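Hallway conversation turned thread

IA: we were arguing at lunch whether anyone had actually written out Radical SAM core domain-containing protein end to end. Turns out nobody had. So, for the record, here is the sequence (226 residues) and right after it the C-alpha cells. Reply here if something looks off.
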Amino acid sequence: NIGIADDNFIVDRKRTERICDILIKEGYNRKVDWVCAVRADGVDEPLLKKMRAAGCRCFCVGIETGSQRLMNVLKKHLKLEKVVEGVRMMRKAGIKVRGTFLLGIPTETEEETLQTIRFANKLRLDFAKFNLITPYPGTELWEIAKERGLVGEDVWSRLIPGIGFTEAEPVFVPKGRNAQELKAKQRRAVKTFYVRPRPIWNLVANIRSFSNFNRHFYAAKLLLKS
C-alpha cells in the first residue's frame, strides 16, 4: 500500500489524470493499492472511475463538521450537501472513504458537536477519525488561543500526539465548554461510529499483520472502557 502525501491530490485534475494513466499503462494498478486525500466537492464520476482503475482504494476526506455554520467559521467553503453527494459517488465507485472531523471548533456548541457525530454516522463512511481541534502557529486559531492564554512556550510539547484518543488533552476549548466534556464527546463519537457492523468489519478486513492486530485490539479495549 502507498499513501500519497498531498492534502488534496485532485486539486490539479490534469496532473491527477496523467498520474492515473501512467499507473494503468505501466501495470502498477495491478500491483499496488494507494490512498490519497481529496475534497468531497472535488470529485465526479469519470475522475473516480479513472482513479479506481489506477489502483486507488481509499480516500481521506476532511469533512470537519456536521454544522454548516461551523463549516463557515472554518472558512472551508464547503456545503454539507456536497459532502453527502461526494461520499455517495466515492462509495459507488468502489473506493473506501475515511472521514476526519474536528471537535471543539471556536464557538461550537454542545448541540453542534452532537450534529457532527450524527452526520458522521449518516454518511456511511468506512472509517472515521474525530480530532480535538488544535491551534498551530501561523493560524487564526493560534492567535485566538494566544489572546486567551491557552498556548505558550511549551506548545510544541503539548502538540506531541498521545498514545491513544483517550489520552489527548484539548489545547483549545470553546467558551462555555470544558475539556472533560469535550473529551467525553470525542469518546462518544468514536464509540457510536465504530460499534456498528460495517466499521467493525472494515477494521477486521484491514488487519494485515500481528502488530496491526495488536493496535486494533488495544484501541478496542480503550473504546470499550470509555
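OS: looked through it. The domain at 2-225 is CATH 3.30.750.200 (Transcription Regulator spoIIAA).
IA: good, adding that to the notes. Confidence is low (pLDDT under 50) at residues 162-167.
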